[in-house]
Amino acid sequence: MDPTADGAPGRPGWTSRFMDRLTIRRMLFVGFGLIFALWLASSADIVRRLDEIENRAANVSNAFRRAEQSLTTVRAQVLLGSVYLRDALLDLDRDPTDDYAALLEQSRAEIEQALERYVPVVQSATERQTFQQLQEEVDDYWNSLLEPVLTWDATRKAVEARALLRVRVIPKRNLIARISERIQRLNRDAFEVQQAEVAAIYRSVRRRVWETSGLTLIVGLGVAALVTRYASRLEDRIRQQMVRDVEHARDLRRLSARLVQAQEQERRAIARELHDEVGQALTAIKVELAIAERNAGLSGKGEDALREVRSITDRTLQQVRDLSQLLHPALLDDLGLPAALEWYLKGFSRRHGIRTELLQDRMDTRLPAAVETCVFRVVQEALTNVARHSGAQSCRIYLQRLPHTILLTVEDDGSGIPAASPPGGSRPGLGLLGIRERATDLGGTFTTESQAGKGPRLTVELPAPRGAQPEDAGPPAPAEGGGARDSTQPMGTTT
Question: 417-425: long-range contacts (C-beta < 8 A, 24 or more apart)?
Answer without folding.
Answer: 417/382, 417/385, 417/386, 417/389, 417/390, 417/448, 417/456, 417/458, 418/385, 418/389, 419/448
